[in-house]
Amino acid sequence: MLNKTIQDWASLAADLDIEGRAFINGRYVDALAGGTRETVSPGNGQKLADVANCGIEDADHAVGIARAAFESGVWANRAPADRKMVLVRWAELIEEHADEIALLECLDVGKPISDTTGVDVPSAVRTIRWSGEAIDKVYDEIPPTPADTLALVQRLPLGVVAAIVPWNFPLSTTAWKLAPSLATGNSVILKPASNTPLSALRIAGLATEAGLPDGVLQVLPGPGGSLGRHLSLHENIDGLTFTGSTEIGKQLMRYSGESNLKRTFLELGGKSPNIVFADSNLEKAATFAAIAVFYNGGQTCTAGTRLIVEDSIRERFVEMVVEKSRGWMPGNPLDPATTMGPMIDAAQLQTVADYVDIGQEEGASLMFGGKQVMADSGGCYHEPTVFDGVNNDMQIAREDIFGPVLSVIGFKDAADAVRIANESIYGLAGAVWCNNINVAHKVAAAVRVGTMGINNYFGGDITVPFGGFKQSGNGRDKSMHAFDDYTELKTTWIEFD
User: Fold this and answer.
1) Is 423 annotated in the active site?
2) What is the reported pLDDT for 2?
3) N or C terminus of the chain with fewer C-beta within 10 Å?
4) How far apart are CA 296 and CA 299, in angstroms?
5) 337-350 as b/e, with b when 16 or more CB fall inside 10 Å?
6) Residue 467 domain-assigned (yes or no)
7) Same domain, 255 and 131
8) Nearest CA to 87 among 126, 137, 139?
9) Are residues 240 and 336 in the same domain?
10) What is the 3-state secondary structure (H, E, C) of 246-313?
């Protein structure tokens, strides 16, 4: 993947053989009704593939196969060390096909090729390998009991897990869901986002090649409104994990209550605060303020969309951020020099444009950007956009835009910064930039989010949990804590004669 040019990637794209069929019982198959839907590249609007449009009958078929595989013990009863070997080999195969998978992710999502080669594919590999390596280090427990008794606390797989993943990080979130659920011995039904299914379908075939038994992993592309709903209501599914919008997450919780009370874990939206104090390294803080909101075109649940800046430096700092924003003008995702690609589709592009209009109507000052660009490309490109003079009462400060729109809000002191940061229904991520370690720690502790950076943004790796507070969801991806979501605790109490 090193030293490839835009021409190299374009040539590889032209020759790419794309698999669009569902993956059921260890093989690629058409949807039972034969339906397909086109998936197009948001970079140029051109068709990529015809993808299976799975329906309720496909879901029932796949769940039955997954249940049979689980009950057989072909995977669930396999020794953790053996499951580890399969997952580690799977990671190796993804690594061996890194260029192909990175290109699929680039074309399907519109992500810059530099991101998919440098972040998305390596991250998926690390997640799967780490989870595999960790699973034979998870011990059961023997609690303290009287001498004539023995208690065992075992961690057992849930059974059949449905995983519904979003379109903005399809490969990364697929790995976050599949790695711990498979490592702990579950069978999994994966429903990728209907408009970005390609990388998930590809790595499913590699899982079988790595030695994952048939029926343990199924991948069903199809619409969330019908297919996702059916899986969420299915009485023969034991657990549901979802990454996506808060609105849909609430609906899935209702479905759990209406069906079999399946374990439901949600990673949802955000409106993350990025707090900058006057004594911080302003150059670094400005650089990361742009990264925090423009990376992946702002289509990131953890995006630092509320830039909360101490009043004494606000004007100067906004100028610095505007200058940094100029380096995030969108471009062709196949160009290694591109830092920001398109919005996922025309609907999301329109959503961003609507919020830009709303921000101006609300009285915020448009300092940079605000327009669609590269319309002649056939893609869905929008400029990085910076608003100043924002307050938390404005829609652009409250609502999850999911696009490259930054709202700058001033604050007077630490207490004011914390108040502004916490005035949100969300609590996913945030950061504080401050060289006074006492202030930095106090502010970081007081902001109600699942992940908080001090003098960094997007900090963390596979070793630490990821998830939110409040309406940003429950449960945790990544780290050893992810295993908790996919297991049940069983107590066996033994009394001796």
Assistant:
1) no
2) 61
3) C
4) 6
5) ebbbbbbbbeebbe
6) no
7) yes
8) 126
9) no
10) HHHHHHHHHHHHHCCCCEEEEECCCCCEEEECCCCCHHHHHHHHHHHHHHHHHCCCCCCCEEEEEHHH
Tokens of residue 420, six digits: 């502004």
Range of the domain at 259: 6-268+473-491
- Domain assignment of residue 164, yes or no: yes
Q: Is 496 inside any structural domain?
A: no
301 is catalytic: yes
How many separate domains does the chain show? 2
| Section 290-315 average pLDDT | 98
Query: What's phi and psi for 132, nearest 5 deg?
Result: -65, -45
- With tokens 């998830």, the residue in question is 467
- pLDDT tens digits for range 243-259: 999 999 999 999 999 99
453-479 residue pLDDT tens:
999 999 999 999 999 999 999 989 999
Active-site residue, selected from the candidate residues 54, 106, 301, 380: 301
The pTM of this model reads 0.96
Mean pLDDT confidence for 483-492: 97
Identified catalytic residue from 105, 267, 310, 383: 267
Contacts of 92 (CB under 8 A, 6+ apart): 129, 210
Question: At a CB cut-off of 8 Å and minimum separation 6, what does 143 contact?
Answer: 151, 153
How far, rounded to the nearest angstrom, does the alpha carbon of residue 242 sit from its chain's CA centroid? 9
Q: Report the CATH number at residue 332.
A: 3.40.309.10
Task: Judge whether 477 and 429 are in contact, CB under 8 Å.
Answer: no
**Token pair of 19, please?**
């698999």
CB-facing half-sphere around the CA of 486: CA atoms within 13 A = 31
